[in-house]
Amino acid sequence: MKTGNLYLKHIIFFSTILFYSCQKKKSGNFDFEKVKKEIIQAPIKKRIAKWDSLIKLHKYDTLAGYLYYQRGYTHYFLSKNREAIKDFKKAIKLFKIRKNKALLAKSYIYTGSSYNSLGEQDIASQYILRGLNLAQKIDKPEILSLAYSELSQIFFKNKDYDKSIEYLNKSAGIYKEINDTPSLIMVYNNIAMIYLNQKRNREALDYFLKIKELNPKESDVEPYNLAILYYNLGHITYDVTKNKERALKYLDKSLEISRKNGIKPIFAYQFLASIFEKTNQLDSAKYYAKKSIIINKNDDYKELVNSYDILIRLSLKQKNDTFLLKLIKIKDSLNTLNHETVNKNNQKVLKKNIMLLDQQKELLQAKKINKKNKIIFIFIIIVFILGLIISFQFNRFDILKHKQELIVLEQKILRSQMSPHFIFNVLSSIQNSLLENNPVVSATYLSKFAKLMRQNFDYIQKKQIKLTEELGMLRNYLETQKFRFKDKFNYQINVDKELSDKDYFVPPMILQPFVENAIKHGFANISYKGLITINVLKKDDRICFEIIDNGTGYMPPIDDDKEHALSIFKKRLFILGKDAYDSFKISRLEQGTKVEFCFQVIKK
Question: In whole angstroms, what is the distance from residue 54 CA to residue 603 CA?
């Protein structure tokens, strides 16, 4: 049965290559005819390397599925079932995309067959049935027959021999319809072998005779398989019918094919010896027993022992004691050699099984570790995502809080600028000047005050204004205060030339609190004329301010529950950046106070 399947694999392998070569399709420089010849001529074990190199070249084009399929089939033929499954599954994905239903069906069937060889019959059945259903839909009888053959293998492994034969007969029916004699011979041979396995020799003989009626030739069947076929036919014919002449005829045919093709017909010679022994033709029996020994050449100790058993029986019947003792000694030594060989082979098998078990244990351990790592990885991912969400929410909360603080700060700034007391006092001073009959002076300062109020309302709504606008508003403020305090102080504003040439931006009314503080507190109780000096400097990429007065000197604000202008100013600096906040400094001079701070240039 195994021999038949190998032959069927050969047929499918080469027919698939032939099919593709006849399509006259090329991808790049890929020559199907050339590849076909190379693959057919190359030994089976070297084909994998050829498919590997072709896959690297055509991994991403239309040939990829076909190449994976062929590499998978080569692995399958070499009984490398795991590798075959991987390749067939890759081919399945690509054939689905390309809608190549014929090769898709075959890929399903061979994937199932590979799983069957690994003893995973449930998965094997699923794949083969998929291939079977697809073959029925696309009306491909040869693929349908392949599916039936592979299903029969599953039932054979499960020892459901009747079901196995049923599917092989279905396969045979298809091969009859399409006149595929070589495949039909292989299917009949498989059925006959199943019957032999069950010791149902009569049914086995019927199928061997069906094969004979098909007149098999070496062009249809591999010579070795053909020689075995005629041997089986002779063996079963004699066992069932006791027809010696017909059995010898079949055995002679087996020997003829063997001699022609260099095959060692050990079984045929042994069986011929047995036939002649049973018919009391002892010399002929001895001749064929010796022939079976000569062609064996110590290759198979077990069969040599069987051949010497025949000679020993013949010597007993001929009462040849001298020769008998010699034969028994040879047989004993061969038995010893055979046991040693069997033990060595058993040890090899045992070592291989132990190695496989160790590999399976390692695989199971690796799967457990992989599963554990997967759970840990998923847990880490979940924690990471939760962390991101929480971080995002906190960040969002901080942004909202910051925005709220800015709004509150802006409101405080609004409240701190141009207090009602200041406005009332200025208006009172203008009113007094009018009462003193100084209408020109009153009109001048009223105009400046009106401009100051307009600037205040315009600029305080903005986040940044031009430096020139800030200084212009400050001059109006200082002039208004001078008028109010009857020129009790003077002022001067010094601006770095580089800053006056370009448009630089600053927060509105950033200097006013310190100017107001100098006038209100610094000059309150002095007997001399006050002076406010404002220096605006450019240092690298920063604007720096200095507000210097010659008043009574800096006094820290009273520690009460009120929020003073100084703390509001510091918050404004903090918003501009840590460097700005750190740059702020108030110094008490021998006479007066000096305020310094810087921030990054705001340039639009």
Answer: 63
